[in-house]
């Protein structure tokens, strides 16, 4: 048998889970950050200031990654929950949703213009169901969580990482930034 002299054609196989490794496009799946540390900051605002400075100095900022280290979930209590507050919030939430549904119904109404019937029906139904769902949810907790809160993910510090090819230049530029006094207006 004689082998063909033609080179074999390579067809790339793609997958929704494959990393395309295109510059400027973040990976689709969670991956650990790579690069060399060129700065470490106590707050995100300071890290952002550093990256802004690098951008102003025509540094290739696409080589930069800001990484939050020592992550914490902070829950700040914003107030006490009472039946009246729960029901008012449920009614307001239901009213917005009911108003939205009522306006959608008027779009598909055979009569031209906004009619009051579907909007009012949606509003009243929304308030009713908002009250019911809020009451059931709060009543099922049985006093185990009688407060409102807002959660936030924060880091203990923020490291600025850079590709090795640009790391030395980035460190030098950030050293210049560290010598400057902080600008409160910036």
TrEMBL record:
Ranges where the record places region Disordered: 1-32
Domain General stress protein 17M-like: 38-111
Record's keyword annotation contains Transmembrane: yes
TM helices/strands, residue ranges: 86-108, 120-141
Keywords: Membrane, Transmembrane, Transmembrane helix
Pfam families on file: YflT (PF11181)
Record's protein name: Magnesium transporter
Organism: Lentzea indica
């Amino acid at each position: 048998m004689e082998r063909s002299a033609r080179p074999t054609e390579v067809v790339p196989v793609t997958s929704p889970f494959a990393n395309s490794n295109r510059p400027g496009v973040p990976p689709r799946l969670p991956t650990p950050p790579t690069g060399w540390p060129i700065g470490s900051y106590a707050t995100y605002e300071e890290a952002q200031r550093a990256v802004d400075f690098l951008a102003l100095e025509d540094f290739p900022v696409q080589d930069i990654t800001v990484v939050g280290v020592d992550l914490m979930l902070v829950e700040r209590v914003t107030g006490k929950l009472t039946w009246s507050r729960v029901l008012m919030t449920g009614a307001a939430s239901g009213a917005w949703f009911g108003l939205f549904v009522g306006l959608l119904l008027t779009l598909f109404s055979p009569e031209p213009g906004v009619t009051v019937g579907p909007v009012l029906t949606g509003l009243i139904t929304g308030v009713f169901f908002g009250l019911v769902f809020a009451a059931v949810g709060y009543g099922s907790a049985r006093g185990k969580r009688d407060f409102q809160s807002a959660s936030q993910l924060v880091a203990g510090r923020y490291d600025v990482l850079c590709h090795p090819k640009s790391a030395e230049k980035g460190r030098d530029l950030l050293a210049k930034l560290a010598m400057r006094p902080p600008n409160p207006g910036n």
